């Protein structure tokens, strides 16, 4: 169960405009789709106190791991996009937790003598045309109410229809012109069926031809001076246009097109793409990029086209690509797109109509994406700065610890004891600086001795590098070479240590190898964090003291109560639960634990995968797999005769004799073997490779595993 506050966007990041939002779980699956007149107000309702939420809503927001939204022009656009995405993604919470009912559909009962337009739920019936699903039944009724002026199809129930037929009087809708009243034979059954088919065609998206036909009829009526009929047709057209206020979601005539919009400033640009297939928005994507050089909007469009269609062919490239600006010259790009598709592709700027309106919606989303990116970037920098300041205040440091190193010990019941070192600079993980250690000084399990060994080895290397290049950092001395930034080994930019350490010349230039790469242990941290309490902290401090290093702060983060321990203190430092500093320390500690567990598991798996077949000369991986696949396990292979081993393709008699001899000398293998692949079956879940981008292990998951893997 996730904490909704961990992914809650700030109110200023959410636009106060209509739109559609999607909640996703940790695997990026869409679990809920909703629409709102005001995205800001609606999303705020989900992030209130969990105790005040409906149980279904509480389950949804704690299952979700992220939320995203798409801005549209009107509520009707949001409605159309909402049901399109519900149909496309089939979100689990939309379907299962909506008052125990399915989504409503607009249905036309073409299987009846007098077709009826109505709201339907549940299983679909043969002979009924369905449109939807919609999120709310009232939205269907509003749409139908607008369309009945032009398509006066029957909407009454069977009882009302029979009563009107018996009395010879139509219902109220028949009197006000919103029903053709087939119940009293104003039109025949055949004419009413034709009217219902026209209604269905309009709802299916074939709107352009019908509206153009009405417009022509209106003009003809005006020319013939039938002004009342022309006015009625004009009102019909306006009603239809109002009913189909969904230009940003559905294009007439089942258009296939990609629409690309760009929002930019002097430093960055946001690109947003809507993929329209069959007249409906089927996908959306976008990204934000730095403008590292002077580029125009047309240049950005050309780059976007290359990224979108560089590896696409055939129907993946649409017939139309609508852009805000054309690359210059446009012909080569258009020819390239045509070659990718295999037929002509139209690359143009929409000038009018529904495509231009949809382009405006895409542009609004691009602008919103750029604003959100800048807001997050500024917020992240501010948050990280506040976290570092809180840590400095809590630990009584002279300055904010811009470089933090964290160490963790991992083992499985005393075997394969390893340690990890992770590095955070300016509050961000710097994975290229991560290091891992095997404990070599002793056998068995002793976290305190292991921590002392690791800290000693790491900072002995630091002192060795420092000795080669001369004294380069002395916090208590005057800056060397007259440069404060160089002497401190850091600057005030958002890159933290990067700009000073990567500069040419100066007192830090000697910290690089001949190929220009930084030396592995050359940079000292301002703070060392160890995973553990007083014993681990004391061991780390003792290791530094033994090496004569007294200008690096040490602390430990104990798991039980998330207490921060300092060397020599009997009482821990307790940071508030809402502290950004505590959150940063937890992230650092959890990342160190994840990296250590990953390395420890990889060593254990490598040891378990050892096989007696590895010692057979000339037996490669392919033939080993063939043997294991043929016999199913090492146990069965060990009991096989030489003639049976020879039955395996690629295994000759001499090789079979060698295999039999090797297996006879080897002790029986304890682990079970997968009969399909020949790999050892482990009870523990295998870890990810070292250096993988896996997120830090959650606090709850960590505590459950530590009993086995410490």
Give a short account of the largest sheet: 7 strands, mixed
Percentage of residues assigned to helices: 40-55%
Number of helical stretches of at least 4 residues: 23
Which parts are unreliable, with pLDDT below 50 for 5 consecutive residues or more?
A: 95-101, 471-518, 669-710
Structural class: alpha+beta
The CATH topology of the domain at 396-402 and 439-587 comes to: Nucleotidyltransferase, domain 5
Estimate what percentage of residues fall within beta strands: 5-15%
The separation of the N and C termini measures 25 Å
Reading off the top of the CATH hierarchy, the class of the domain at 396-402 and 439-587 is best stated as Alpha Beta
What is the CATH architecture descriptor of the domain at 396-402 and 439-587?
2-Layer Sandwich
Protein name: UvrABC system protein C
Domain UvrC family homology region profile: 259-544
Biased composition (Low complexity): 490-502, 667-679
InterPro entries: GIY-YIG_endonuc, GIY-YIG_endonuc_sf, GIY-YIG_UvrC_Cho, Hlx-hairpin-Hlx_DNA-bd_motif, RuvA_2-like, UVR_dom, UVR_dom_sf, UvrABC_protein_C
């Amino acid at each position: 169960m996730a904490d909704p506050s961990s992914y809650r966007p700030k109110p200023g990041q959410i636009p106060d405009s209509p739109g559609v939002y999607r909640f996703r779980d940790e695997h990026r699956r869409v679990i809920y789709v909703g629409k709102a007149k005001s995205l800001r107000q609606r999303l705020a309702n989900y992030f209130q106190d969990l105790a005040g939420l409906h149980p279904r809503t509480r389950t949804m927001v704690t299952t979700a791991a992220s939320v995203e939204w798409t801005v549209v022009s009107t509520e009707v656009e949001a409605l159309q996009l909402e049901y399109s995405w519900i149909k496309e993604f089939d979100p689990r919470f939309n379907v299962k937790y909506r008052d125990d009912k399915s989504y409503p559909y607009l249905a036309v009962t073409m299987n009846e003598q007098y077709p009826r337009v109505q709201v339907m739920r549940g299983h679909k019936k043969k002979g009924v045309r369905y449109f939807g699903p919609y999120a709310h039944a009232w939205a269907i009724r509003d749409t139908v109410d607008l369309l009945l002026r032009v398509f006066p199809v029957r909407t009454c129930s069977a009882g009302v229809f029979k009563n009107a037929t018996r009395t010879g009087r139509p219902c109220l809708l028949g009197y006000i012109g919103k029903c053709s009243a087939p119940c009293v034979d104003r039109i025949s059954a055949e004419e009413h069926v034709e009217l219902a088919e026209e209604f269905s065609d309009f709802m299916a998206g074939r709107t352009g031809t019908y509206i153009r036909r009405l417009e022509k009829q209106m003009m003809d009526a005006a020319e013939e001076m039938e002004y009342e009929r022309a006015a009625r047709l004009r009102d019909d057209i306006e009603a239809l246009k109002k009913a189909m206020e969904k230009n940003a979601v559905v294009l007439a005539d089942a258009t296939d097109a990609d629409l690309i919009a760009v929002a930019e400033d002097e430093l960055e640009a946001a690109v947003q793409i809507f993929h329209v297939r069959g007249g409906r928005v089927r996908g959306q994507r976008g990204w934000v990029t730095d403008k590292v050089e002077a580029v125009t909007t047309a240049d950005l469009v050309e780059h976007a086209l290359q990224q979108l269609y560089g590896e696409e062919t055939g129907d993946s490239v649409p017939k139309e690509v609508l852009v805000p600006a054309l690359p210059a010259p446009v012909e080569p790009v258009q020819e390239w797109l045509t070659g990718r598709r295999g037929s002509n592709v139209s690359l143009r700027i929409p000038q009018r109509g529904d495509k231009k309106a949809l382009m405006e919606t895409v542009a609004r989303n691009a602008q919103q994406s750029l604003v959100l990116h800048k807001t997050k970037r500024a917020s992240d920098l501010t948050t990280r700065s506040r976290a570092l300041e809180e840590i400095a205040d809590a630990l009584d440091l002279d300055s904010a610890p811009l470089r933090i190193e964290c160490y963790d010990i991992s083992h499985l019941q005393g075997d394969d004891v390893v340690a990890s070192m992770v590095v955070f600079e300016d509050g961000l993980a710097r994975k290229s600086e991560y290091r891992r250690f095997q404990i070599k000084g002793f056998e068995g399990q002793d976290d305190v001795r292991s921590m002392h060994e690791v800290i000693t080895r790491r900072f002995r290397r630091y002192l060795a590098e420092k000795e080669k290049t001369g004294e380069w950092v002395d916090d208590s001395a005057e800056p060397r070479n007259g440069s404060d930034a160089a002497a401190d080994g850091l600057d005030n930019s958002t890159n933290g240590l990067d700009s000073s350490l990567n500069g040419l010349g100066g007192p830090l230039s000697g910290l690089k190898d001949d190929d220009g790469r930084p030396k592995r242990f050359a940079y000292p941290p301002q703070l060392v964090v160890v995973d553990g309490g007083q014993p681990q902290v004391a061991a780390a401090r003792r290791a530094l003291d033994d090496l004569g290093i007294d200008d690096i702060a040490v602390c430990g983060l104990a798991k039980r109560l998330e207490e921060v321990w300092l060397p020599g203190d009997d009482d821990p430092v307790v940071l508030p639960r809402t502290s950004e500093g505590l959150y940063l320390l937890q992230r650092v500690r959890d990342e160190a634990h994840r990296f250590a567990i990953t390395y420890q598991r990889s060593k254990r798996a490598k040891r378990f995968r050892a096989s007696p077949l590895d010692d057979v000369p000339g037996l490669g991986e392919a033939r080993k797999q063939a043997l294991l696949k043929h016999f199913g396990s090492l146990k069965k292979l060990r009991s096989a005769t030489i003639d049976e081993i020879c039955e395996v393709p690629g295994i000759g008699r001499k090789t079979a004799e060698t295999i039999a001899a090797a297996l006879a000398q080897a002790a029986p293998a304890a682990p079970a073997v997968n009969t399909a692949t020949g790999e050892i079956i482990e009870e523990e879940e295998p870890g990810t490779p070292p250096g993988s981008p896996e997120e830090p292990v959650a606090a709850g998951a960590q505590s459950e595993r530590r009993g086995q893997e410490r």
